[in-house]
Prior knowledge:
The complex is a heterodimer.
Chain A: E1 3-12, E2 22-31, H1 36-47, E3 66-69, E4 72-75, E5 87-91, E6 98-100, E7 103-104, H2 107-115, H3 136-142, H4 153-157, H5 159-163, H6 170-180, H7 188-196, H8 209-213, H9 220-239
Parallel strand pairs in A: 1-5
Antiparallel strand pairs in A: 1-2, 3-4, 3-5, 6-7
Chain B: E1 2-5, E2 8-11, H1 15-27, E3 33-37, E4 53-54, H2 63-73, H3 80-99, E5 114-115, E6 125-126, H4 132-144, E7 150-154, E8 156-164, E9 167-175, E10 181-185, E11 188-191, H5 212-219, E12 224-225, E13 230-236, H6 247-250, E14 254-256, H7 288-301, E15 305-307, E16 310-316, H8 321-328, H9 330-340, E17 349-358, E18 361-363, E19 375-377, E20 382-383, H10 395-418, H11 425-443, H12 451-465, E21 469-470, H13 472-489, H14 503-527, E22 536-537, H15 545-548, E23 550-555, E24 563-568
Parallel strand pairs in B: 1-10, 2-3, 2-11, 3-7, 11-19, 18-20, 21-22
Antiparallel strand pairs in B: 4-6, 5-6, 8-9, 9-10, 12-18, 12-23, 13-17, 14-16, 15-16, 16-17, 23-24
Amino acid sequence: MSKRTLDIEVLRYDPEQDTEPHFMSYQVPCEEDWAILDALNYIKEELDTTLAFRWSCHMMVCGSCGMMVNGEPVLTCKTFVRDLPKDVRIEPLENFPIERDLVVVLDDVMEKLQMAKPYIIRKDPPPENEEFNQPRSALYKFKQYTMCVNCMCCYSACPQYALDSSFIGPAVLALAHRYNIDSRDQGKSERLDILADHDGVWNCSFVGACSEVCPKNVDPAAALQQMKIDGAKAYWLQKLPGGKS
Amino acid sequence: METIHADVVIVGAGGAGLRAAIAIAETDPSLEIALISKVYPMRSHTCAAEGGAAGVKGADDSLEMHFNDTVSGGDWLCDQEVVEYFVSQASRELIQLEHWGCPWSREDDGSVAVRPFGGMKKKRTWYAADKSGFHILHTLFQTSLQFPSIKRYDEYFALDLLHKDGKCRGVVAMEMRSGRFFAYHAPAVIMASGGAGQVFPFTTNGAVKTGDGMAMAYRAGIPLKDMEFVQYHPTGLPGTGILLTEGCRGEGGILVNKNGYRYLQDYGMGPETPIGSPVLKTMELGPRDRLSQAFWHEQKKGNTVETPWGHSVLLDMRHLGEKKINERLPLVRELASSYVGHDPVKEPVPVRPVIHFMMGGIDTNLNGETQMPGLFAIGETACSGLHGANRLGSNSLTDLLVSGKRSADRASAYAKETGRSEDNPTLRAQAEDIVGNVRGLLQRSGGGETTAGVRREMRDSLESGAGIYRDEKGAQATCDKVAELHERFQGIEVNDKSNVFNTDLQQLLELRNLLDVAETVAEGSLQRRESRGAHQRLDFVGRDDENFLKHSLAFREPKGRPRIEWLDVTITRSQPGVRDYSGGKDK
């Protein structure tokens, strides 16, 4: 396996010592088949144990290791040395406050997740001692929106969230949509308030950056578009004589 | 130090911890739950499970058959009353998940689909493509958000247990973002902190799996049970150790050596079955221990393939076709293509055995109760005796649910009966000691050792002395090495002095836990002088029921190596017999 040395600049910030973030450079002898996360672990083990970053699974499912690599929000376990130039710059995800080094504060999105009521809401009881029947066609309607790993890359890419962090944002809206269109759910009307609100889908400017950067091909932009159509329908239904949402 | 009072503290917010939290919240909303996790719940390693969760489903299947598969799969080291309860609750729990929205894959008629899995006589593994654990975890996490009584403490690192008069009274944890310490007082604590694959160099397990809960219980005087039983999954990617699910073989993938020969037929798992029509419980659908051991022999014989990442065999899935692979195994395709550059649609993928699961753990009974009243343990961190000497694939995801629910019910009842614990000087002093210990680690300097260095030596030693095959000399050397590393641990300096998200300190604390777990794995490997399931001794070939139809219990000794005691296995209706994977013979 051939080695290649990368010059990696990493944004560092310790709120106890630094008045502002600054870059530190490391020369890292990388194996050609490494992910850039492996290079960060090399730095941590061999060069500088004080570097802070989140990671766990190293297989694209836990969603911990989202960072900016050469300006793009990515999962670092899914971004390979072979695809990168010699100079690499790693920064914390944009649009989030920095907690420490490459670790960002996620409180805002975690709170929004709760607001979307991302769970099955039933008015009738579920079938007794057996599963719901759900044809594959019904499963495939929402399946792609279940793939989100909450890596938050889409929030980093979203121009609307950058302007106004009260916007609920791509991942959470896509998740709400996932439950709205699940044939087992009866809670759509309960999610309407939040979603059709000023900070909900209507605030999306439909640039589609979220879907472009999504490492799991969730396509939140498509979810938001569908929700806008649904939302508009619900709005006009309300306006009909005797109408209800 | 701040004090937090709760009725039940749960340490770990993966599949087991979340299931337990939901169970408590549903049954009694008045109970306050503190759910502590060193990572956000969706980062927990449950997310990495791929293949599925077992529960009897088909009309041709029965609880009896699931019981028999599990007990023989575990080489009769299973506690049979635990297995009986487990199989009886399995499908109920999987249906519950379905009602909560888990996107299970479906049959043509819209019912939940099941797939074949290793060591299972019938198709009974419920799956969501090849991201079953991921979907189970997210379904549980999202479902948990509706219960206000579940108060989460995300990114709080649990340090040690609080106990008084032999009873568990809480836990102390450190908030990662601030470095502040919190004493949680509660009558009941449930450990749900996962396994300890990070004790080995080459593992499917994520960085988080450092045996924290096992080590905390062990330090509090609770024995760890059956720690010598460590599962190698037969099909990991060489280099990274990334898991390729048993579902690959369940769907019909085959294993061949460098000559293109399906070598499993030479290791008691033949005769060969037709390619593309897998036969249950034989050949590629044999149990994991047997498949991993077969690899070891093939390597000895020179039949393995050399790759840039070391010796491998080949997992051939080409005959499944692109459509089926995309529908049932999309993650496998992505992982194999990205990490070793082999697209399973077009070429065989190199694979090799990789550390995957700890059958052992905190000694519990069927209820998740430990030897310390008030302390419960569930999921991989526990050893209830369900998996015996070798876990069958897809039994562990179900176990998270079954043990999570049962233990939650017991813990709630216990918490109500016992009542909130009062703050008192003993517990306060204990908490101060725990914190003082951590501060001491942070401040010491000049020992010349590094976390990464000691960790690497520990891992290499575990692999050489407690790997797929073991012997007296190798296991003894590993016991000695781990004891030496415990000493050298004292010489590790923490360079990072910050209070904010100090991962240098966290990794040192995790290493402390890993070393505690490592010594029990090594000692069990040395003292179990027989071969059973995943524990194979070159110098003690074959199972020895006369002397070792027993669980090992490793107790911590203040100085020196752990003390091993032996505990009888509970047998209700299946006497030890021959494990037969030659296809079709056992009923």
